[in-house]
Amino acid sequence: MTFDHDLKASVRTIPDYPKPGIMFRDITTLLADARAFRRAVDELVNPWAGNKIDKVAGMEARGFIIGGAVAHQLSAGFVPIRKKGKLPHTTVRIAYSLEYGIDEMEMHVDAIQPGERVILVDDLIATGGTAEGAVKLLRQIGANVVAACFIIDLPELGGAAKLRAMDVPVRTLMTFEGH
């Protein structure tokens, strides 16, 4: 059994969720499987083990779970990137494009110091709109975005390619065809 197949087997697919035609890739089953979760975190961390990473930034909400584990393994701090209005202290904010509209995300203004080496983490990359916004937000406050890591890539939707075009190396552990 290959690494990709082994981890893929721990991801549940839910057809027609949240709307018809979508194949929702549910990582909660991977998170519930201790061996699969550990393996996924180890594989996301592996390229940067032994390198200086100051912070791991995780996008709401599953990026918090994965990002916290990655930060722990790298002995780095963790920074949540949240939807507008969810953080209690002074924030820096950016608007970003969604498939059908615009939203805003923010982080604490003092969460990252200029020049700090940051890895962006989330569970899945699809169109890349949210991840692109997060990279722009991190760079806006002076972060050196070393890489973006995702468990799942939906390559047909072009998100990983969008980040690579921004000179952000992308690490994914598996791909699924379609939406």
Distance between the termini: 25 Å
Q: Kindly give the count of domains.
A: 1
Largest sheet, strands/sense/barrel: 7 strands, mixed
DSSP helical segment count: 6
Q: In CATH terms, what is the architecture?
A: 3-Layer(aba) Sandwich
Order of helices and strands: HEEHHEHEEEEHEHE
Structural class: alpha/beta
CATH topology-level fold name:
Rossmann fold
Strand arrangement across the biggest beta sheet: 5-6-4-3-7-8-9
Helix content: 25-40%
Radius of gyration: 16 Å
Cα shape:
globular
Number of strands: 9
Note the beta-strand portion.
Answer: 25-35%
CATH class: Alpha Beta
Average pLDDT across residues?
Answer: 94
Provide the low-confidence segments as ranges.
Answer: none
Please give a structural write-up.
The chain is of the alpha/beta class and 179 residues long. It has one domain (50-175): 3-Layer(aba) Sandwich (Rossmann fold), CATH 3.40.50. It has 6 helices and 9 strands; from the N terminus they run H-E-E-H-H-E-H-E-E-E-E-H-E-H-E. The protein has helices at 3-8, 28-32, 34-45, 62-74, 129-140, 159-165, and strands spanning 12-15, 23-26, 55-59, 77-83, 91-98, 101-108, 117-125, 144-153, 170-175. Strand 3 (55-59), helix 4 and strand 4 form a beta-alpha-beta unit. Helix 3 (34-45) crosses helix 4. The chain is globular and about 40 Å long. Its main location: cytoplasm.
Mind sketching the topology for me?
Layout: H1 3-8, E1 12-15, E2 23-26, H2 28-32, H3 34-45, E3 55-59, H4 62-74, E4 77-83, E5 91-98, E6 101-108, E7 117-125, H5 129-140, E8 144-153, H6 159-165, E9 170-175
Parallel strand pairs: 3-4, 3-7, 7-8, 8-9
Antiparallel strand pairs: 1-2, 4-6, 5-6
